[in-house]
C-alpha cells in the first residue's frame, strides 16, 4: 500500500501521498502518468513508498486499497481458481474415463480458440469452407491418434466386437482416406482472389492440430499408464502457477522476461521451491492407492474398465540412506519413501523451470497478434488455452520421461500381438521361445516328455 509519513488524504476517491514537510493547505500536485493506477500498484507492490498508517485512517486506507484494480483482479482470480480446483477434484473422483472425456472437451475448446484468432486476424470471413474443413481435419487427426490408442490399451475389447475389429485392422488406411478427402476438398475450395489467404489458414489449421491434438493424445497416454502420471504433473503446473503468482504479487521486484512483464525472478524461484515440496507430498499420498497407480485396463469378466493391480516397485515404500552431509542436520540416517517420489522431483522441476516457457511462448503469440487473452471463457484467467499453455508442454515431457525411464516391455501387449498371428507363426514363436528358455536353464531338456 502507498503510505506517506504524513498520513492519508482523500482526493476524489484517490489516495494522494503527502511528502514529508508538505503543509496541509499546500496546493495539490497535478496528476501525472506516475499517479495512474498501474504506477500506484507498482509502487504499492514493490514498497516504493513506506510509512506509517495512522490508526484512525486504517479502515479507510484498507478499503481504498481493496478497491484498486489489482486487488479486484486478485479476488476474481482467487475465487475462480478455487472453483477450478474443486471441479478438478470432482472429475478425478469420477474416474479415468471421465478424465479422458474432459481432456477431449478441453482439446476441442483450445482448438476453437486458436482457430477463431486466425479467423479474426486474417479476416477470413469470405473463405469458402474454412471453418468446416478446420473441424473436419480435427476429426480426422483425432480418429488417427485415438484409434491406435484404443487398440493398444484395450485390445481385448476391440477383438470382441466385430465393428471395432474391422476399424482397428484397417485403421491407418481409413485415417489416410479421411484426411485425403479433406485435402481434396481444400483444393477444390481454392478461389483465385484468396489463394494466399487460404494457404495461410491451411497452415494455421495444421500447426494448431500439431500443437493441440498431438499433445492431448499424449495426455491420454499418460492417463492410461496410471492416474498418478496424469494428476501429479498437472497439479505441479497448477501449483507452480499459483505460487509463482503469489510470490510475485507480494515479493516481486526483478522482471524475469520481457515477453511477460508481470513475471518476476522472485515469483519464479519461490514457485520452484513450493512446487518441488508440493510434488513430494502429493506423490507420497497418491502412491499408497491402487486406484491412482494402476494402469487403466478393460476387464472382460465385468465388462468394465478397471484400475486394480499389484503395485509395482515404483509404488512400494523403500528405505534410502540420507547423505552424510545432511544426517547431522535432520538427525536421521535413513528415510522411507516411495521411488515415485524421486521421479516427482524431476516432474516438479520441469513444471517449475521449463513449463513456464510454454506460457512465455503463448505470451509471444498473443503479442504477435495484439490480443490480451485467447478468449474470455474464464473471468480473470482468459480462455481455456491460457490455462493449458504450460500443460501441453508438460504432457510431452511426461510421456517422453515414461518411455525413457519407466516403461518396459509389456507382457500383456506382447501376448495380444501373439494371438493375432497365424497358427504356424504362433507355433514357430513357441518353439523358438522354448529353445531359448532351455538354453538359459530355465526349462529342462528338450527331450523331457513333459515339455
From TrEMBL:
GO cellular component, one term: endoplasmic reticulum membrane
Record field: transmembrane: 74-94, 100-122, 129-146, 173-191, 198-220, 226-252, 264-286, 340-362
GO molecular function, a single term: phosphatidate cytidylyltransferase activity
Reaction catalysis annotation: a 1,2-diacyl-sn-glycero-3-phosphate + CTP + H(+) = a CDP-1,2-diacyl-sn-glycerol + diphosphate; 1,2-di-(9Z,12Z-octadecadienoyl)-sn-glycero-3-phosphate + CTP + H(+) = 1,2-di-(9Z,12Z-octadecadienoyl)-sn-glycero-3-cytidine-5'-diphosphate + diphosphate; 1-hexadecanoyl-2-(5Z,8Z,11Z,14Z-eicosatetraenoyl)-sn-glycero-3-phosphate + CTP + H(+) = 1-hexadecanoyl-2-(5Z,8Z,11Z,14Z-eicosatetraenoyl)-sn-glycero-3-cytidine-5'-diphosphate + diphosphate; 1-octadecanoyl-2-(5Z,8Z,11Z,14Z-eicosatetraenoyl)-sn-glycero-3-phosphate + CTP + H(+) = 1-octadecanoyl-2-(5Z,8Z,11Z,14Z-eicosatetraenoyl)-sn-glycero-3-cytidine-5'-diphosphate + diphosphate
The EC number(s) this enzyme carries: 2.7.7.41
Predominant subcellular localization, coarse grouping: membrane
Subcellular location field: Membrane
Lineage top rank: taxon: Eukaryota
Segment forming the signal sequence: none
Keywords: Lipid biosynthesis, Lipid metabolism, Membrane, Nucleotidyltransferase, Phospholipid biosynthesis, Phospholipid metabolism, Transferase, Transmembrane, Transmembrane helix
Bilayer disposition of the protein: Multi-pass membrane protein
Name this polypeptide is given: Phosphatidate cytidylyltransferase
Enzyme class, first EC level, given as a word: transferase
Pfam families: CTP_transf_1 (PF01148)
Stated family: Belongs to the CDS family.
Summary of the function given for this chain in its UniProt record: Catalyzes the conversion of phosphatidic acid (PA) to CDP-diacylglycerol (CDP-DAG), an essential intermediate in the synthesis of phosphatidylglycerol, cardiolipin and phosphatidylinositol.
GO biological process: CDP-diacylglycerol biosynthetic process
Functional pathway: Lipid metabolism; Phospholipid metabolism; CDP-diacylglycerol biosynthesis; CDP-diacylglycerol from sn-glycerol 3-phosphate: step 3/3
Amino acid at each position: 500500500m502507498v503510505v506517506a509519513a504524513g498520513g492519508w488524504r482523500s482526493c476524489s476517491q484517490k489516495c494522494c501521498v503527502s511528502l514529508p514537510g508538505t503543509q496541509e493547505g499546500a496546493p495539490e500536485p497535478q496528476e501525472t502518468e506516475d499517479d495512474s493506477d498501474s504506477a500506484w500498484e507498482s509502487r504499492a507492490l514493490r514498497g516504493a513508498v513506506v510509512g506509517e498508517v495512522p490508526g484512525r485512517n486504517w479502515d479507510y486506507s484498507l478499503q481504498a486499497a481493496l478497491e484498486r484494480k489489482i486487488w479486484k483482479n486478485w479476488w476474481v482470480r482467487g475465487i475462480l481458481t478455487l472453483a477450478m480446483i474443486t471441479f478438478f477434484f470432482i472429475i478425478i473422483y469420477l474416474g479415468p474415463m471421465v478424465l479422458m472425456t474432459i481432456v477431449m472437451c478441453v482439446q476441442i475448446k483450445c482448438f476453437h480458440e486458436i482457430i477463431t484468432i486466425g479467423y479474426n486476424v486474417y479476416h477470413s470471413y469470405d473463405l469458402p469452407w474454412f471453418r468446416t474443413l478446420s473441424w473436419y481435419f480435427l476429426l480426422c487427426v483425432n480418429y488417427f491418434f485415438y484409434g491406435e490408442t484404443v487398440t493398444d490399451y484395450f485390445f481385448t475389447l476391440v477383438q470382441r466386437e466385430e465393428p471395432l475389429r474391422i476399424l482397428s485392422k484397417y485403421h491407418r488406411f481409413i485415417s489416410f482416406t479421411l484426411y485425403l478427402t479433406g485435402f481434396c476438398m481444400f483444393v477444390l475450395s481454392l478461389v483465385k482472389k484468396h489463394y494466399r489467404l487460404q494457404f495461410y489458414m491451411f497452415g494455421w489449421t495444421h500447426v494448431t492440430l500439431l500443437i493441440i491434438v498431438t499433445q492431448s493424445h499424449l495426455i491420454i497416454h499418460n492417463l492410461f499408464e496410471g492416474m498418478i502420471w496424469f494428476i501429479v504433473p498437472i497439479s505441479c503446473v497448477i501449483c507452480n502457477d499459483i505460487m509463482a503468482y503469489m510470490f510475485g504479487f507480494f515479493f516481486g521486484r526483478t522482471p524475469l522476461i520481457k515477453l511477460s512483464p508481470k513475471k518476476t525472478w522472485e515469483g519464479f524461484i519461490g514457485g520452484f521451491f513450493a512446487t518441488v515440496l508440493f510434488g513430494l507430498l502429493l506423490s507420497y499420498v497418491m502412491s499408497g492407492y491402487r486406484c491412482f497407480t494402476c494402469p487403466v485396463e478393460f476387464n472382460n469378466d465385468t465388462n468394465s474398465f478397471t484400475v486394480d493391480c499389484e503395485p509395482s516397485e515404483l509404488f512400494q515404500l523403500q528405505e534410502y540412506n540420507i547423505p552424510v552431509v545432511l544426517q547431522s542436520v535432520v538427525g536421521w540416517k535413513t528415510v522411507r519413501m516411495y521411488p515415485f517420489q524421486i521421479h516427482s522431483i524431476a516432474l516438479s522441476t520441469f513444471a517449475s523451470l521449463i513449463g513456464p516457457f510454454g506460457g512465455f511462448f503463448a505470451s509471444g503469440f498473443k503479442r504477435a497478434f495484439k490480443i490480451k487473452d485467447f478468449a474470455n471463457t474464464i473471468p480473470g484467467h482468459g480462455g481455456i488455452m491460457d490455462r493449458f499453455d504450460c500443460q501441453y508442454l508438460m504432457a510431452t515431457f511426461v510421456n517422453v520421461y515414461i518411455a525413457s525411464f519407466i516403461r518396459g516391455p509389456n507382457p500383456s501387449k506382447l501376448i495380444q500381438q501373439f494371438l493375432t498371428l497365424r497358427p504356424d507363426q504362433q507355433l514357430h514363436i513357441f518353439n523358438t521361445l522354448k529353445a531359448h528358455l532351455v538354453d538359459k536353464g530355465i526349462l529342462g531338456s528338450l527331450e523331457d516328455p513333459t515339455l
